[in-house]
Design a protein that fits this description.
3 strands; 157 residues; three-stranded antiparallel sheet; mainly alpha
Length: 157
Protein backbone atom coordinates (compact mmCIF):
# COMPACT_ATOMS: atom_id res chain seq x y z
CA UNK A 1 0.00 0.00 0.00
CA UNK A 2 2.93 2.32 0.68
CA UNK A 3 4.28 1.68 -2.81
CA UNK A 4 0.93 2.53 -4.38
CA UNK A 5 0.73 5.76 -2.37
CA UNK A 6 4.26 6.62 -3.45
CA UNK A 7 3.33 5.89 -7.06
CA UNK A 8 0.33 8.21 -6.81
CA UNK A 9 2.47 10.90 -5.19
CA UNK A 10 5.03 10.72 -8.01
CA UNK A 11 2.24 10.89 -10.63
CA UNK A 12 0.66 13.96 -8.97
CA UNK A 13 4.06 15.69 -8.71
CA UNK A 14 4.66 14.87 -12.38
CA UNK A 15 1.26 16.36 -13.22
CA UNK A 16 2.03 19.54 -11.30
CA UNK A 17 5.41 19.97 -13.02
CA UNK A 18 3.90 19.79 -16.52
CA UNK A 19 2.63 22.95 -18.28
CA UNK A 20 -0.72 21.37 -19.15
CA UNK A 21 -2.70 18.98 -16.99
CA UNK A 22 -4.73 16.13 -18.41
CA UNK A 23 -5.53 12.52 -17.75
CA UNK A 24 -2.84 11.42 -20.16
CA UNK A 25 -0.24 13.45 -18.26
CA UNK A 26 -1.36 11.79 -15.04
CA UNK A 27 -1.06 8.33 -16.64
CA UNK A 28 2.41 9.16 -17.92
CA UNK A 29 3.37 10.27 -14.41
CA UNK A 30 1.92 7.05 -12.99
CA UNK A 31 3.96 5.00 -15.49
CA UNK A 32 7.08 7.02 -14.65
CA UNK A 33 6.48 6.50 -10.93
CA UNK A 34 5.94 2.80 -11.46
CA UNK A 35 9.18 2.56 -13.44
CA UNK A 36 11.05 4.24 -10.58
CA UNK A 37 9.45 1.94 -8.01
CA UNK A 38 10.23 -1.11 -10.14
CA UNK A 39 13.82 0.03 -10.50
CA UNK A 40 14.25 0.52 -6.75
CA UNK A 41 11.83 -2.18 -5.56
CA UNK A 42 14.30 -3.87 -3.22
CA UNK A 43 15.24 -0.61 -1.57
CA UNK A 44 11.58 0.45 -1.20
CA UNK A 45 10.39 -3.04 -0.22
CA UNK A 46 7.90 -2.94 -3.10
CA UNK A 47 8.50 -6.31 -4.79
CA UNK A 48 4.95 -7.48 -4.08
CA UNK A 49 3.49 -4.27 -5.52
CA UNK A 50 5.55 -4.57 -8.69
CA UNK A 51 4.61 -8.25 -9.10
CA UNK A 52 0.90 -7.48 -8.66
CA UNK A 53 0.98 -4.56 -11.08
CA UNK A 54 2.66 -6.69 -13.76
CA UNK A 55 0.09 -9.44 -13.12
CA UNK A 56 -2.75 -6.90 -13.43
CA UNK A 57 -1.35 -5.67 -16.74
CA UNK A 58 -1.04 -9.27 -17.98
CA UNK A 59 -4.63 -9.92 -16.90
CA UNK A 60 -5.84 -6.90 -18.88
CA UNK A 61 -4.10 -8.31 -21.94
CA UNK A 62 -5.52 -11.80 -21.36
CA UNK A 63 -9.03 -10.41 -20.88
CA UNK A 64 -8.75 -8.31 -24.03
CA UNK A 65 -7.56 -11.36 -25.99
CA UNK A 66 -10.40 -13.51 -24.60
CA UNK A 67 -12.92 -10.78 -25.34
CA UNK A 68 -11.81 -10.41 -28.95
CA UNK A 69 -11.50 -14.17 -29.47
CA UNK A 70 -14.96 -14.89 -28.07
CA UNK A 71 -16.45 -12.02 -30.09
CA UNK A 72 -14.98 -13.54 -33.24
CA UNK A 73 -16.15 -17.04 -32.31
CA UNK A 74 -19.66 -15.84 -31.48
CA UNK A 75 -19.91 -13.88 -34.72
CA UNK A 76 -18.77 -16.82 -36.83
CA UNK A 77 -21.03 -19.16 -34.85
CA UNK A 78 -24.13 -17.06 -35.43
CA UNK A 79 -23.32 -16.49 -39.10
CA UNK A 80 -22.32 -20.04 -39.99
CA UNK A 81 -24.75 -22.17 -37.97
CA UNK A 82 -28.45 -22.47 -38.09
CA UNK A 83 -30.17 -21.54 -34.85
CA UNK A 84 -31.54 -25.06 -34.48
CA UNK A 85 -28.00 -26.46 -34.30
CA UNK A 86 -26.90 -24.21 -31.41
CA UNK A 87 -26.76 -25.98 -28.08
CA UNK A 88 -27.21 -23.36 -25.36
CA UNK A 89 -26.68 -24.74 -21.89
CA UNK A 90 -26.73 -23.76 -18.25
CA UNK A 91 -23.86 -24.94 -16.10
CA UNK A 92 -22.63 -24.64 -12.56
CA UNK A 93 -19.13 -23.20 -12.09
CA UNK A 94 -17.40 -23.82 -8.76
CA UNK A 95 -15.92 -20.71 -7.09
CA UNK A 96 -14.93 -22.13 -3.71
CA UNK A 97 -11.71 -20.60 -2.48
CA UNK A 98 -12.35 -17.20 -4.05
CA UNK A 99 -12.97 -14.11 -1.95
CA UNK A 100 -16.13 -12.12 -2.59
CA UNK A 101 -14.19 -9.48 -4.51
CA UNK A 102 -12.48 -12.11 -6.69
CA UNK A 103 -15.81 -13.84 -7.32
CA UNK A 104 -17.43 -10.54 -8.27
CA UNK A 105 -14.60 -9.65 -10.65
CA UNK A 106 -14.72 -13.12 -12.23
CA UNK A 107 -18.49 -12.86 -12.59
CA UNK A 108 -18.23 -9.55 -14.41
CA UNK A 109 -15.43 -10.80 -16.67
CA UNK A 110 -17.51 -13.85 -17.61
CA UNK A 111 -20.55 -11.69 -18.35
CA UNK A 112 -18.52 -9.23 -20.42
CA UNK A 113 -17.16 -12.04 -22.57
CA UNK A 114 -19.62 -12.58 -25.46
CA UNK A 115 -21.39 -15.93 -25.50
CA UNK A 116 -21.41 -16.43 -21.73
CA UNK A 117 -23.21 -14.74 -18.89
CA UNK A 118 -23.46 -15.19 -15.16
CA UNK A 119 -27.11 -15.88 -14.38
CA UNK A 120 -26.95 -16.39 -10.63
CA UNK A 121 -24.56 -16.66 -7.71
CA UNK A 122 -25.20 -19.08 -4.88
CA UNK A 123 -26.09 -17.28 -1.64
CA UNK A 124 -23.19 -19.08 0.07
CA UNK A 125 -20.71 -18.00 -2.69
CA UNK A 126 -19.75 -21.54 -3.70
CA UNK A 127 -20.78 -21.51 -7.35
CA UNK A 128 -22.05 -19.51 -10.29
CA UNK A 129 -24.80 -20.54 -12.65
CA UNK A 130 -23.65 -19.67 -16.16
CA UNK A 131 -25.45 -19.58 -19.49
CA UNK A 132 -23.33 -20.54 -22.47
CA UNK A 133 -24.68 -20.04 -25.97
CA UNK A 134 -22.83 -23.03 -27.39
CA UNK A 135 -20.18 -25.25 -25.91
CA UNK A 136 -19.37 -28.20 -23.76
CA UNK A 137 -19.56 -27.52 -20.00
CA UNK A 138 -16.15 -29.05 -19.20
CA UNK A 139 -14.48 -27.12 -21.99
CA UNK A 140 -16.04 -23.85 -20.75
CA UNK A 141 -14.99 -24.54 -17.14
CA UNK A 142 -11.44 -25.35 -18.23
CA UNK A 143 -11.21 -22.20 -20.34
CA UNK A 144 -12.41 -19.99 -17.48
CA UNK A 145 -10.02 -21.67 -15.03
CA UNK A 146 -6.98 -21.30 -17.28
CA UNK A 147 -7.56 -17.72 -18.41
CA UNK A 148 -9.80 -15.53 -16.29
CA UNK A 149 -9.58 -17.20 -12.89
CA UNK A 150 -5.81 -17.72 -13.07
CA UNK A 151 -5.30 -14.12 -14.18
CA UNK A 152 -7.43 -12.70 -11.37
CA UNK A 153 -5.67 -14.82 -8.74
CA UNK A 154 -2.26 -13.71 -10.05
CA UNK A 155 -2.84 -10.09 -9.08
CA UNK A 156 -5.16 -10.44 -6.08
CA UNK A 157 -2.99 -12.82 -4.08
Amino acid sequence: MKAFALNLLVSVVWLLLQPGSSGVTLLIGFAFGFALIALFRELLDASNYVRRMFAAMRFCGVFLREFLLSSWQLTSLVISRRLERLQPTMLRYDITGLTRMEALLLSHCISLTPGTTTVDIDPDFRSFILHVIDGRPEQVRKSIDETLRAGILAFTR
